[in-house]
Design goal:
The protein has 144 residues and is of the alpha/beta class. 44% of the residues lie in helices and 17% in strands. It has a single domain, classed as Periplasmic binding protein-like II (D-Maltodextrin-Binding Protein, domain 2), CATH 3.40.190.10. It has a four-stranded mixed β-sheet. It has a two-stranded parallel ribbon with strand order 3-4.
């Protein structure tokens, strides 16, 4: 009985570890038309906080958020780039909109809608799971 219990603990630990290893990467993407080939996380953060985000070459970046039903990728992005949880991020934007200090970011309802929006707006960026990247998207930053 003691050996069986120990084997269950080991198996549970391995399952937890394999989930961490298998976690997909989050990619910051733009349209293939976007002239920049990479951007840093500080610029991405500024764009997703609705602040002025301008590249070294003078291009203004506009962020496109993802729907909250893509919780895993969105939470990973917000935590990794902003250092916040999704509740704090949502509260931040609620306050900005409520006080009239800004407008909420546009939200893509699906990966295909995101790809179309990025293609129509070459200065726009967003984020996807690495398994969601399409041929229309250019990777500007990889978040582990």
């Amino acid at each position: 009985m003691k050996i069986l219990f120990l084997n269950q603990k080991i198996l549970f630990g391995l399952v937890l570890l394999s989930g961490a290893w298998a976690q997909a990467k989050t990619l910051v993407v733009s349209s293939q038309k976007f002239s920049e080939n990479q951007i840093d996380s500080a610029l991405v953060k500024e764009a997703f906080l609705g602040r002025s985000a301008v590249t070294k070459n003078g291009f203004t970046i506009k962020a496109i958020d993802r729907q909250e039903n893509d919780a895993k990728t969105r939470a990973h992005f917000i935590k990794s780039v902003l250092g916040w949880n999704t509740t704090r991020y949502k509260a931040f934007w609620s306050q900005i909109v409520f006080t009239g200090k800004g407008e909420a970011l546009p939200v893509a309802s699906s990966v295909s809608a995101l790809a179309e929006t990025l293609d129509r707006s070459p200065g726009s960026i967003s984020f996807v799971d690495d398994t969601e990247k399409t041929q229309q998207m250019k990777v500007l930053l990889t978040i582990d």
